[in-house]
Here is the input.
Amino acid sequence: MKTPAQLGLFGFGLVAVFAVAWGAGTLAGPIAAPSEGDAAHGGGHEEPAGSPVKIPGGLQVAQDGYRLELTTPTLSTVDAQPFTFKVIGPDGKPVTAYTTAHEKDLHLIVVRRDLSGFQHVHPALGPDGLWSVPLKVAEPGVYRVFADFVPAGRAEGLILGADVNVPGDFRPRAVPVGVVDDYTVTLEGDLVPGTSSKLTLTVSKGGKPVTDLQPYLGAFGHLVALRHGDLAYLHVHPDEGTKAGPQIVFYAEVPSAGTYGLYLDFQHEGTVRTVSFTATTAGVVTPPTPTPTPSKDGHGHGH
Here is the structure.
């Protein structure tokens, strides 16, 4: 496929067998036994008895004794307000020591459950283990936050997720597709469940190839994929041979057929931008965008 993609300013700073492996194209996910619901939704082939089964990252609020504890109940659509949270460790205390991964101790992804309003930000850690970052979202709805981090002394990273409500009139949106700021990104390649899929994203500006991309968080691009329906999380980095454009090559493995929201972060001329678009695996039809149903008071309400 070759899909034009909408480029937006990196809104608030730049989210399955998915993971935080963080080698180029290398994925590793949390280990757990799948539920009956996972199997019912096409979670892949049956594993031999006794084999560890990987499940998508970001679907759990707690794993391996670690728990994501939100201390801010809602987000604002009016102005940027502090969003705070803690990571509670196996000892029941807030975690205060982390291993830096891609230049940050923790990456926070924020996205509305219809895959719109994507943000990737980097909170500040206080001495008491409280993370804080100013956040503002564009529209009301239910948002998912993903904390992507590596606790000190632990070999593997964790991706914990939780929902946050934003009060107001919810109106479903489609993931934007198009161009903005004179940038265009095209996607070539197909997502094939259960195998490493090569995806090539080509960046151009004003119709001319961009050949001077700048590193951002240690790479020329960061790609996040979220599975439509449950927001299973995948984050991969460019192939080691990727240069400063115009092409950024990723190898990503998705665990099941379906529709995925894709989000690419890249930096050019000192500004980080995010492009978002939708991709489906072979034979999958993109679901229609929900249409708000007018209520008696004349305002639309999504379902």
Notes: The first strand starts at residue 2 and ends at 9.
